[in-house]
Amino acid sequence: MKRIGLLVLALLLMVGAANVLAQDDAPACDAAATADVLAGLVEAVRTAESPIEALGAVRDAASIALAACGGLNFSSDVEGMMPVIGPVEIPEGIYRVTVITDGYFIASFDVLDGQCGDGRLFLPGLFIVSAGDATEGAQAVVNSEGCETLISIENVTEDWSLSFEKLR
């Protein structure tokens, strides 16, 4: 298990370095380094005492890599209709979050570490949208003091996209 933890840490450091280098731009994606870390995770799964814990570490590493490669942009095409996305790292800053959907949509944060919220209070709720209210986009402000969170998507009736744009 120590080996899996070290490999996940290596992936986190790679993603963190990409965020520092890219600053206000979307995080960079280094496919070769990501492939190396994932190959190491595969080997760790083969030798793990607990396949469930090993698979959880692989899932978490893949979520972090997806965020690094795709930026903080999510959609039902990639994530599915009602996923729990993450863990997702939202670097420190103020973000405009936009959801686009023709249907109903609820998104909430389950913060694992750090603080992120709506800019006034640190709250778990992000969006509660009725059908037709976000056809051209609905927006919210998220203030992150550097957080790691799960994003729960529920009560969805149509395809959706969710994107974070760093303002500061």
Outline of the structure:
With 168 residues, the protein is an alpha+beta fold. The chain has helices spanning 2-22, 31-47, 51-70, 76-79; strands spanning 73-75, 84-90, 93-101, 105-117, 125-129, 138-154, 160-166.
Question: How would you sum up this structure, described in words?
Answer:
With 168 residues, this protein is of the alpha+beta class. It folds into two domains: 2-70, no CATH class; 73-166, Jelly Rolls, CATH 2.60.120. It is 37% helix and 36% strand. It is built from four helices and seven strands. It has helices at 2-22, 31-47, 51-70, 76-79, and strands spanning 73-75, 84-90, 93-101, 105-117, 125-129, 138-154, 160-166. Strands 1, 2, 3, 4, 5, 6 and 7 form a seven-stranded antiparallel beta sheet that branches. β4 (105-117) and β5 (125-129) form a beta hairpin. α1 packs parallel to α3 (51-70). It is globular and about 50 Å long. It starts with a helix and ends with a strand. Mean pLDDT is 76; it is low at 1-28 and 119-123.
